[in-house]
Amino acid sequence: MTRYLARRLLQVVPTLIGMSVLIFALVRLLPGDVSNTLTGGDAGASAERQQAMLTELGLADPLPLQYWNFVSGFFTGDLGQSFLSGQPVSDTLLRALPITLEITLLATVFAVVVGVPLGVISAVRRNSVLDLITRLGGLIGLSMPNFWIALIALLITSTFFFWVPSVTWIPIWTDPLGNLAQLAIPSFAVSLYLLAAVMRMTRTSVLDVLREDYVRTARAKGAPLHRVITRHAVRNALIPVITLVGAQVGNLMGGATVIEVIFGLPGVGNTLVQATYNRDYPVVQVTAVFLATVFVVINLVVDLVYGFLDPRIERR
Fold first, then answer.
1. I need a labelling partner for 34 at 20 to 30 A (CA). Which of 84, 96, 184, 279 fits?
2. What is the pLDDT of residues 230-247, one digit of tens each?
């Protein structure tokens, strides 16, 4: 296991380096002149003023030096300052991170709590009407984009129930009920794809486990069906489901970006979008690297869990 862990960690290092280089390069390739954005599109701004501004912000330095200043900030704790607000990027990220994490957590919990029971019921009642309805719902959930679901849900609640979420962020420590009400629709929209995937994976896994010899033996000894399902089938069938959920958490954080923009939630995704519009390089770079790092780390954890559960993987 130690050798497998070391090998996976060594694979992560070049991945993170390549990812940082790619993000740095893509930010520099954004169309438009950052100096024009920073001067508010002032046509009267002289070339000397624009050049002085670029020099002050470090954008006139050679690209290798700019990249080194960007990367070294992760080791020193100085992630730079926003071009527009002048605030430290770390403070901007820390303000936005709890919102995205809460959306992701609520979406994950909802997907697991609803998807696993539906998958078990669908497997136990295979080819029944309920099974067909559940499978059809899973296909629909996998097919519909989350932003469309959010808009439809918002339209329904505003038209028929005359209620829309607050456009001003409500922290959970200030008003827990108001916070949950505000995030109900966004979390539901983000979770639907994962819910459908969890349901389908649970159904497939339970069907495979129900064909195992030990399950048939338990049934032959007279064990009740519900006990066989809960103590044998579900526990063993949840291993690939847990792996699926872990691998999708990073996708949920990325998928929350559009939802945050639609509902005006100042999360990490919305912060990244607004910073991209304003050519706020430090915020864009740090936020993009953070999201990518979360995705890489989660996949690393999933790989390690796989290696722990199935020792055969360590030899591959």
1. 96
2. 776 777 777 788 778 877
Three-class DSSP labels, the chain: CHHHHHHHHHHHHHHHHHHHHHHHHHHHCCCCCHHHHHCCCCCCCCHHHHHHHHHHHCCCCCHHHHHHHHHHHHHHCCCCECCCCCCEHHHHHHHHHHHHHHHHHHHHHHHHHHHHHHHHHHHHCCCCHHHHHHHHHHHHHHHCCHHHHHHHHHHHHHHHCCCCCCCCCCCCCCCHHHHHHHHHHHHHHHHHHHHHHHHHHHHHHHHHHHCCHHHHHHHHCCCCHHHHHHHHHHHHHHHHHHHHHHHHHHHHHHHHHHHHHHHCCCCHHHHHHHHHHCCCHHHHHHHHHHHHHHHHHHHHHHHHHHHHHCHHHHHC
Give the pLDDT confidence of 253-272 residue by residue, as tens digits.
777 888 888 888 888 888 88
Is the pLDDT confidence value at 181 over 60? yes
Average pLDDT, the chain: 80
Query: How far apart (Å, rounded) are the C-alpha atoms in residues 85 and 38?
Result: 11
Give the other-Cβ count within 10 Å of 58's Cβ. Answer: 14
Q: Is the pTM of this model over 0.90?
A: no
In this prediction, residue 82 carries a pLDDT of 83
Structure confidence by residue, pLDDT tens digits, 2-60: 776 677 777 788 888 888 888 888 887 777 666 666 665 555 555 676 677 677 767 77
**Residue 159: phi, psi to the nearest 5?**
-85, -45
- Domain parsing of the chain, residue ranges: 2-76, 89-315
Q: Which two tokens stand for residue 166?
A: 């607050």
Indicate the class that CATH gives domain 89-315.
mainly alpha
